[in-house]
Amino acid sequence: MNIVNVVLSGGVGSRLWPLSRKSRPKQYLPLFEGETLFQKTVKRNYFYCDQILVVGNADNYELSRRDLHASGISDYSEIIEACPRNTAAAIAFAAFSQSLQDILFVSPSDHLISGKEDYEKAVTRALDLAKDGYLVTFGLKASQPETGYGYIEAAGEEVLSFREKPNLENARNFVKLGNFYWNSGMFCFQAGVYLRELMKYEPELYNKARLAWELSQNGQLGLEESLQIPSISVDYAVMERSNRVRMVPSTFAWSDMGSFDSIYSYLLAQGHPVDENGNMVIGSKLHTEFSGMKNTLLIQTKDAILVLQKEQAQEVKRIYERLEKEKPDLV
To answer: The pTM is what?
Structure first.
């Protein structure tokens, strides 16, 4: 039985436009003490796992290779998706590539995690549960009302329900109730257990993903057969429906770094300059003055400028989606 770190690296990071683009998603931005989130993910899990398996897509696998090389890691394997088909299929490809008894420790490549001892405790518990045949997810106690995260309602390790990203009122209620956890998007299970549950609940996805895998060449999937695979998240396909799910309540510090609110907090803690009203500039060395504004971010790249109230960070995705239609060269 091998433990395989399945690193999911196909995300776009639309809520971090204009820093994050399709050609260089957020997990490859060297904003984090000179490293990328992808590099931090691989290094963080290196000592818990026997193998590294990167599941990326045709647009960014070379960025993964570059980051691995820069980290001094050459012993890894990869699966290259022809087009994004969401996490249920991405994990299925990883499972097809391994022995059924192997444990997949699935970790998104765009999360920031700290608290080594707490992290090790959570991972060790998750691996033990996975060895017993459970589908394991990690939950972080909801300490504040976040509308950008999914939630898990739990009683100890038993999962009662999964909740989609809530509005602010519901998020506040989740925190008040006290038994809700942020859904980390990290998972741990045996390859065979995952495939069996996927086949049970989403047989079409299972069969089409398996066909695409069988027709792949050297880990590279074909476009025509990939497009036939339903695009469904692993939460919806399996985790929300299986009776074999457990959650490890976790106390390590975690953020999906999915919005400029998170980036702002991280950079502020690292000593990034702000003015007396909490206004911050990212990506420009030009002298900048803010008048009549508080907690505002100005983000500049070579071809775009975004001015954003920190509290409205979740709205950037709408800007990204509009530009995708109106000015696709900017995304």
So the answer is: 0.90
